[in-house]
Design goal:
The chain is of the alpha/beta class. It has a domain of 211 residues: Vaccinia Virus protein VP39 (Rossmann fold), CATH 3.40.50. The protein contains 13 helices and eight strands. The two termini are 52 Å apart.
Length: 305
Amino acid sequence: MRYLILLAAAAGLAACQPSSEQAPAPAAEPAASEPEAAAAPEPASLDTILAAQPEENQARYAYRNPKETLEFFGVERGMTVVEALPGGGWYTRILLPYLGSEGTLIGAAYEYEMYGLFPFASEEFMQRQANWTTDWAAGAEAWRGDDGASILATRFGSMPAEADGTVDVVLMIRALHNVARFQNAGEGNYLDTALSDAFRVLKPGGVLGIVQHHARDDMPDEWASGAAGYIKKQFVIDAATAAGFELDGDSDINANPNDQPTTDDIVWRLLPGLRTSEDNDELRAELEAVGESNRMTLRFVKPAS
């Protein structure tokens, strides 16, 4: 059909040409030169993107240090990045415009079965998790803007084989404590699976960036299991190394020495949740003064060979 259309168009053009008996048409005036196309706008800098975030998100910068954190992990425009447990999109809103239209952001939730291990896992909660990959991707579209990254969604434990060796950076920001907590519960191996998937999808030389609530070395291992939100640095290093990664950097960017939990404390007592002080104004003020949790910031790499 396309061939016939092209033939018809050619015939029409031929019919419009002057015959040998017709006087030649006068020469057309040279067309005025068109103005040069406007140069493409410069991509927004990370500083500009951070300044455009909602005020309530910017209020967390003092504790989460997004610029320094993303730079420490080597995140750049045009990359393919996996964001583990993107939640309400605090980092997603930054990453989508920062990666730009040539980049890709892949949101990765926990394995569906693991969500059923939470004590609050109601039927409604589990239904939301069942729909998460579709719902998160659709919701994140609102944050892409005119020059945002492509959006994909998946789960640890079921990352497609097509992603193998295609990712530049995997970000696990405050996402490891739950997979550590449930490592040996239910079907188990949730921590091992998450780290194994991260290793598999990363390019050789790719980065695994971890920010995690940091349990002091003197705290009991039972308390530092992840159930209270905190895990120990050496535990993280050992788990990532067992998955094949090499430790490439250790930063105090997100450290907060004011956070000194006891074995009676959970990380969610602090900002932004303040879950344990809803009815105690004095305690609430005390915890607000602490800020957010003390966090380790570790950069691992997948060996180049």
